Amino acid sequence: MNNYKNKFDIPHFLYANCFPRWMVMICILPLLATTNFSLAQAMGKDGASFNHIQTGFNLVGSHTTAPCESCHVQGIFKGTPRDCASCHTLGNRMGATAKPNRHIPTTAACDKCHRPTTWVPANYSHVGVAPGACLTCHNNLTATGKPNGHIMTTASCDTCHRTIAWIPAGYDHTGVAPGTCASCHGVTATGKPNGHVMTSASCDTCHNTRAWLPAGFNHRGIAAGSCATCHNGTTATGKPNGHIATTDSCDKCHTTTTWLGAGFNHVGVAPGSCASCHNGTTAKGVGGSPTTRYPAYSGHVPTSRWPSCDICHKSTTTFLNAKVHGSGASVSGQCNICHRAHNDSQSCDNCHSTATWNN
Fold first, then answer.
1. Are 205 and 218 contacting, i.e. CB atoms less than 8 angstroms apart?
2. Contact at 8 Å (CB) between 131 and 158?
3. Among 104, 105, 52, CA closest to 82
């Protein structure tokens, strides 16, 4: 028998005994669910609506897909590390990737070389690295080193390579014995390409150590008339489009030192056919072609004898000293076309003769 009017008058120890724990949990669970729901609303579905930039730590790369709890262990937000090394160390509680055993020895922060989007490739600043110390890291264990088939050398990597890329690499040929090029070139270094001029000569006979091109070629011993065996437009430079039509060998006109300044043997060329080549395109001429109108724009002395250049130009070695008068060209009353220095008279020939001014 008791004097308590309701459950609120029951002492706490009796109240606890009167209500089983499962009844207490029924009352608490809705409150927990409401709290969790409010938290989920703040975070958004899977945390997607939360603007992480507002925290001062922008998520990029792999961080964007990492579960929140991988960084915020046990739901603790405050004090979460912002620097790489605090997470990316051996035995870290976040389970983040750490430096492997063979990592380059360095005290620099991860983001000095790596990006949050991917670990590899990584950039490494060689500032402060002592010259000649490359092999400390570039030993094919810590960092990339010499590949199989590398040129035999005891020189340090930085003797030939740069810190921004392995290739292109320079090589100091000082001390390399002349004629020994093929001990590397064609084995561990670039050698003759397909279609190279057939020769058993050493590379340095034609090439220099600065660049393959341009290359010189010693034509000594080359049989006369055999130029086209190399100068075919594939193995070596050959006839360009518009070349004078001829079946002669290259060395009939050209020298072995240069293409330009070529001489042409006019023996056998039919008289009056000069402009078939001397049209200003194939060979020096007044312009136009031998089958079109006379090119008055050329500045050449007007003549009805064109295209027969050899009526006036008797020499096959030079255009100068051509004889106009006596060539058969009609010049009466047209003197001033050429002779303008006196009084620009059209009829110089009223006083002067075509043989001399003084008569």
1. yes
2. yes
3. 52
CB-CB contact of 87 with 96 (8 Å): yes
Structure tokens at 348: 């110089």
Give the end-to-end CA distance of the chain in Å, rounded to a whole number: 169
Q: Give the whole-angstrom CA distance, residue 236 versus residue 214.
A: 12
- 130 backbone φψ class: left, alpha, beta (φ>0; ψ -120 to 50): beta
Q: Shortest CA distance to 174 belongs to which of 137, 207, 209?
A: 209
Burial bucket for residue 141 (CB in 10 Å: 0-12, 13-18, 19+) = exposed
Alpha helices in the chain (DSSP H): 12-18, 21-43, 68-71, 84-87
Q: What is the pLDDT of residues 185-233, one digit of tens each?
A: 988 888 998 888 888 889 999 999 888 888 888 888 889 999 998 898 8
- Tell me if 245 sits within 8 A of 260, measured CB to CB: no
pTM for the whole thing? 0.45
| Amino acid letter for position 103 | H
Residue 131: both structure tokens together: 């010259």
